[in-house]
Write a structure and sequence with these properties.
The chain is α+β, with helices and mostly antiparallel strands. The chain has one domain. The chain is about 20% helix and about 35% strand. It is built from five helices and seven strands; from the N terminus they run E-E-E-E-E-H-H-E-E-H-H-H. A five-stranded mixed beta sheet has the order 2-3-4-5-6, covered by helices on one side. The protein has a two-stranded antiparallel sheet with strand order 1-7. The radius of gyration is 24 Å and the shape is elongated. The mean pLDDT is about 85. Bound molecules: zinc ion (ZN). The site of zinc ion has 7 residues, from loops.
Length: about 180
């Protein structure tokens, strides 16, 4: 299936629907983040067109494998994202004087497409990115805290070489 769908060919009487599995090579922005060992996200996506407006909705589900930010251990991340937003042509911003028009609309989030094309696989990839935690750490993903082995010498250095260690004696109050 093509990555782009031409908006003007979407029927106004029948939604355009795709479902399947988002392959790793269809998520180029996540190439350095996703590890082997997870499952690929299953998706469905639904585009309903009304003139130039497209309501985009769908769901994305899977268990990804991504590394802990601190210790690098692979962690399972369950993704179950539902989404609904509206897409309008980017040109509308200029021709209709932008925001004022859109503020009257219902509470749907808004996105833009250009050149009569919607990158629907890019939309799905966006949803995976939105599902990622800001920090991915062992203890925040239901694991015990990261185990980063420090050798005894490093621990000793932490005690003696700490440039702030003298502050604990002299205190900050001295002017
Ligand atoms: Zn960790």
């Amino acid at each position: 299936m093509e990555r782009f769908i031409q908006v003007s060919v979407i029927s106004e009487s029948k939604a355009w629907i795709q479902e399947g599995e988002l392959r790793a090579d269809e998520m180029p922005r996540l190439v350095d983040i996703l590890l082997a060992g997870g499952s690929l996200p299953q998706f469905w996506i639904n585009l309903e067109r009304k003139k130039k407006e497209v309501i985009c909705s769908g769901n994305l589900e899977g268990t990804l494998s991504i590394a802990c930010d601190r210790c690098g251990q692979p962690l399972k991340l369950v993704v179950d994202e539902e989404f609904t937003f509206k897409m309008v042509p980017e040109a509308n911003l200029d021709s209709q004087n932008g925001k004022e028009v859109f503020l009257e609309d219902e509470d749907l989030d808004m996105d833009f497409y250009r050149d009569d094309q919607i990158d629907w696989k890019g939309i799905l990839e966006d949803q995976v990115i939105l599902a990622l935690p800001i920090r991915n750490l062992c203890e925040e993903q239901g694991q015990s805290a990261c185990k980063i082995p420090l050798n005894p010498q490093e621990i000793e250095n932490l005690k003696t070489d700490n440039p702030f260690s003298s502050l604990s004696n002299s205190g900050w109050e001295n002017n």
